[in-house]
Predict the 3D structure of the following.
Amino acid sequence: MISSADRSTADASRAAVGVGELGRRLWSIALPVLPVLAAEPVYLLVDGIVVGRQGPQDLAALGVGALVLLVLGTQMNFLSYGTTARAARLHGAGRRSDAVAEGVQATWIALAVGAVVVAAVLALMGPLTAVLASDAEVAARASEWLRVAVWGIPLILIASAGHGWMRGVQRLRTPLVLVALGIGISTIGCVVFVPGLGPFPEFGLIASAWANLAGQFVMAGGFVVALVVEHSGSLRPRRAVIVSQLRMGVDLVIRTASFQITFAVATTAAAAAGVSSLGAHHLAQQLWSLYALVLDSVAISAQSLVGAALGAGLAAHGRALVRAVVLWSLGLGVVLALATVLLRDHIAAVLAGGPDVAGRLVVALIGMSVVVVPAAVVFGLDGVLLGAGDAAYLRTTTVIAALCGFLPVLLATRHFGWGLVGIWWGMGVFVMMRLIAVAIRVRGDRWMVLGSATPGGSSEREAAR
């Protein structure tokens, strides 16, 4: 056992590490994570291009089906974020085997939740696609695609759990290899079998679903194999750990739902301003999603390092990491803001199909350049608090910011016709409310729970069962 004197000495030594060194540690995790985060959007882009050549109805059907999977996958991201926080804390405490065991229990949750979601989607598929697609033929094709692709949901969740425990123990190369392999198989299958290249027959839209499923199967299988090889204990479900993970997961699901609801309302506000505003808003949201990937890579790095520091009982080192995360996130936000505002006309010209959309997109890009600076700090501090297992606080403050900040501005925007200007004012209010909340939190001590007890309520005795 480490004595209090030894721990104080180690803590002081870690705290003395400079911002530059801590920045290198942050980026040593963030850079391998970024391609993993970007892989799925890039594949979806390729998939859309290939299917789009089959005709507008197939592309619309793919859009409807992919939206269902995207929303469900996003809602279940607690399997990644929650598992990272819990595994990182145990890893920092020197309990690597228990950290890997978190991955075992998260995988059981992935299987159970995935089975329930598959059953629900299959039962509601007809009404669901009919609501999302105004055209009956598009809805029918979307159902055909989704009937195959829906079986990938448990595989997506298994991979999410795999990312979680591997990031927690800072094993970063394996997820990168598995994602590259899975996306590679999906891309090749889509490019070859959808149009029927060479000697292969043309399978059309349904080949996209099968290619997607094949890549997800390989990826999830790789994570399961890695888990079985790494884990030396029992693979049976442990109720106490699963309950603790689900308790934290509920907080993260509610937090994610608040994002999706407000962004959906933002889309309706853009639509009320006209077709050109809606098109510009869609393009701005895609660019914002790209920025979010970059910022999220730093947040995930913060999760892993902060969780490990707190698990090791290194309070001063945790504080030093907070300062480093703020500085590096702020710098990244400034770079993105300058690039956006200086290149706004060029970006709008490349992305937009006509002058009306381009003109409105410039307005959104100016708003984005302002908002991305505080948003970068929010992303970083979210990562800090998630690493500390403070998901309940993030849930509450995010919901309050969405309902009391973003949503009222969006409703006023729809009513008064403020268009994209109003939407980005709303985003600014949303981000600033969250920034104030997380800044107040990290200045205090309530988030800094030291030791190997995992976030979410499981005790060491329960974790050891």
Q: What stands out?
A: Residues 250-465 form one domain. The chain has two domains: 27-237, 250-465.
